[in-house]
Write a structure and sequence with these properties.
By secondary structure, this protein is an all-alpha fold. It contains 13 helices and no strands. The longest helix has 26 residues.
């Protein structure tokens, strides 16, 4: 669909879009999974400006699908979807809350499904997608909903998941607009991990510090370029 879109008029493209919508509700789990996996290509084809009108409801449908494999496919594509939408991300907290707030329950439901099933690969996909969250959600939304998820996986996750959660938390702190929240979260990391009794706790703290330094270095590079 994505390759064909530049050769099609809107009238010609619309039937393809309707067919895609029909297949997203197919009784076959495998068909819905394929639709979820190809969601970024469909978004790229119709353009990010039409996301709210044509695709937002479908994306919520995938995230809430009864099949864990469909939800996993949706979660795996979130990072790419976020990047495609990022060019049109809104800036003010009020605009972000109004535009993307409706997606929050679906994302939290997907994370809950991943945590209950101990699906660490799905957890990893979700946490890697957290890097894009500051573009779409306010500091308060992230602090209330996504930061607790990071601390949960930092404490009780397999090593790749711990690493992804640590990077996500560092990114959240770096992009948080409230000094009080930045201080609170940094203090909590020091208390729970730098002063932790276990070897693994202290390793998590070292990784956290490394991520914070990398973010700062990247920021300086962007300013100087």
């Amino acid at each position: 669909m994505c390759k064909m879109v530049f050769d099609l008029t809107d009238d010609e493209f619309q039937p393809l879009m309707e067919a895609y919508k029909t297949y997203t509700r197919h009784s076959s789990e495998e068909v819905r999974k394929l639709c979820a996996s190809n969601f970024p290509a469909v978004l790229k084809a119709i353009g990010a400006r039409k996301y709210a009108l044509s695709l937002h409801v479908l994306y919520q449908q995938f995230v809430q699908d009864a099949s864990s494999s469909v939800r996993a496919a949706c979660a795996a594509s979130f990072n790419e979807v976020a990047k495609l939408l990022g060019h049109f991300a809104v800036g003010t907290p009020q605009q972000k809350a109004a535009t993307f707030g409706g997606l929050m329950p679906s994302l939290l439901l997907a994370e809950k499904s991943a945590s209950i099933g101990r699906q660490w690969r799905l957890q990893l996909c979700l946490l890697r997608a957290f890097a894009e969250m500051p573009e779409f959600f306010t500091s308060d939304q992230i602090y209330d909903n996504f930061v607790p998820i990071c601390f949960c996986y930092m404490a009780d996750g397999v090593m790749p998941v711990k690493a992804a959660a640590t990077m996500a938390l560092a990114n959240f702190i770096r992009n948080n607009r409230k000094a009080s929240q930045r201080y609170e979260l940094s203090t909590r990391v020091v208390k729970e991990y730098a002063h932790g009794r276990s070897y693994w706790s202290r390793m998590v703290f070292i990784e956290f510090c490394e991520n914070m330094l990398n973010f700062e270095f990247s920021y300086v590079q962007r300013c100087l370029s």
